Amino acid sequence: MSPAAPRPSVLFVCVHNAGRSQMGAAFLTHLAGDAVEVRSAGSAPADAVNPAVVEAMKEVGIDISARTPKILTTEAVQSSDVVITMGCGDTCPVFPGKRYLDWRLDDPAGQGVAAVRPIRDEIERRVRDLLAELGIGASDGP
Q: What's 80-113 look like in SS3?
């Protein structure tokens, strides 16, 4: 990617924006740094990020305890190059020219940390694959 090329923008969407989409956004931010613009949102946001998700991410050195779920907006989708849905069903608006990926993953809602770990690890693997597809080298963050 040449320095003049704009940063790709990736939006992670799930229903509550309290688990899967938060983990996806956190991993992409951690691994890509400023090379990618990262957003996450939910079609029906929860009041807070799932505590088991926060704990599972802490185990891999990523603190998402200060994050808050956000509502999915049409503008967020329109301004993203890649939209990754994680169980939001048909509520995510579709626009021509956008790349959509549907990552079918178990919902960590109501699960303990032990159940969240394999979901977390799969999200990290998919984020690393996405970075490779985008031609962006993953760092291990600060």
A: CCEEEECCCHHHCCCCCCCEEEECCCCCCCCCCH
Question: What sign results for the dihedral spanned by CA atoms 23, 125, 29, 4?
Answer: negative
- Whether 60 is a known active-site residue: answer no
User: Is 108 considered catalytic here?
Assistant: no
Catalytic residue of the set 10, 11, 13, 14? 14
Q: Please tell me the distance from the alpha carbon of residue 61 to that of residue 135, in angstroms, as a whole number.
A: 24
Q: Where are the beta strands (DSSP E) in the chain?
A: 9-14, 37-42, 82-85, 99-102
Confirm whether 96 is a catalytic residue: no
Return the percent helix, strand and coil in the chain, to nearest 5: 40, 15, 45
Supply angle C-alpha 70, 71, 75, rounded to 5. Answer: 110
CA distance 114 to 118: 8
pTM of the model: 0.91
DSSP single-letter state for residue 138: P
> Is the predicted pLDDT of residue 1 greater than 50, yes or no?
no
Task: Using the predicted structure, report yes or no on whether residue 39 has a pLDDT greater than 70.
Answer: yes
